[in-house]
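G., the chain you wanted modeled:
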Amino acid sequence: MTSPFALPELRYRISRFVAVKDAISCALVCKAWTHDFMSVIWFKVDFGTHPGFVDLSPDIVSKHGHHIRFVTNACYPSQISLLANTSQVCQLRTLYLKSIHGATPRASTEADERTKKAFEIVARNSNTLQDVRLWSYSTPYEGSDFLAHYVHTPALTPFSGGASAAAAPLQEISYSGITKLTSLELYNLILSYDDLASILEASPSLIKLSLLCTCLVGTPTRSFQHTGVKRLNCGINFVFQIGDQYHTQNLYSPSLLLSYLPNLTHLCTWQEGWSYDYPTDKIKNALDRYCPHLTGFMISDRSNFTVPDFCTRIGRPVTQLVFNFETLTVEGVAAILSHKAILTNLEVFSRNNGFDAEAYEVAEVSNYFQESSLLLQSFPRECSLLDEFDIFLHEMDMDEVEQAEWVCKNLKTLRIRVKGLDTEEKIKKAIALWRKGCWRKRQAKTTTTTTTTTKDSVALLLVDQQDAVDYPIEARVARHLLKFEKLEAVWLGYQTWGPI
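Predicted structure as tokens:
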């Protein structure tokens, strides 16, 4: 009898769901299997986790380069050169290049060559790229090598001429049409306002734009608006033209970046450089004029421009807010609660904590604001529309949690810490009890759809009494989680879990 694995269609479908390690084993079975599983092996190249990729022979990379769709953490000249010199790498969807210009600005010849090769990679893949990050490790202000930091704008617009054009040198490529870009991030680079307008015009699908320590120079010669960009990441000094460092570096333009993005809904901003007294009226006028739909903010408030400024003095409706937990004040809590009727997402971040919701180790907690921890309970108790609540640095006390009901019954994502739930075993046990309760809920619904709910059926939804005795804190947490029927993602300090 013929093995079902002899069917190419079946092997192809299986290959879509196997890990890279398993795909390598499958590719060694026979030539037919190699054909089906090779694309999985080469699908993503992460130089951070596989630095040995750069040691592969050019012939091998050329043979299989057409399978590559994701390239991340290309930081060294040898890595960029390998990609630039392999014309078969021409169907990338994601590209993260982190050393377009080196950390030694005076080595201009080497820097210019690296910049050229980086943009050759971008140009060759401009028809397929969806997510691009281009970083320079040196700033435009180190020395006078501004040209090495300039973004080669034509590389970010699609070429014409098919595969032969993809393999051509950068200066010989003909550009036309539109890109598939949805996210663009530029760090420590320079481009003119007109260049930015050209990139935006060629990228109608762009949703997220990040200009990190990146300068827009010159005076715009044409007006342009991109109605699709929803998210902007950019330093507050530049977005609102605050401070004089752009004047002193002769890299300043009086035009507002916000005027290009009329449908902006989310702004992630922070302080770059010196501290300023931020002119609230100027910021409010700019947002009112250019950003009528902006309601989501991510604020790094190291300066005196803080959460209360955005939540109260700027006068904008705030539906989503990400703020720095270590600078939260009682005034900040009150300012956030002034938007409790419309707030749907509330999250924190920390400059000193690299948060990873999927980490295989129990995360640390912060002692900050612990004495006023009861105030933090005001958020889930008063913000009825919350569907994401994330204060992963704060350790809650279940005694305080259980003092009053959380009104956010539409909660879908929850990231919190709980006192006493401080080991992997305890966190997993709490999740297991929650999942058991979710299963009992589903069972109860299937058996009580045509009858009135009784006390016995309600009891099915509770955690077992014996579990409550054996695992008191885990049981209390599970019972609390079971109050939110729409909960999809839970983080209690160790990985993210779903109800199934």
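Residues 430-485 form one domain.

Shout if anything looks off.
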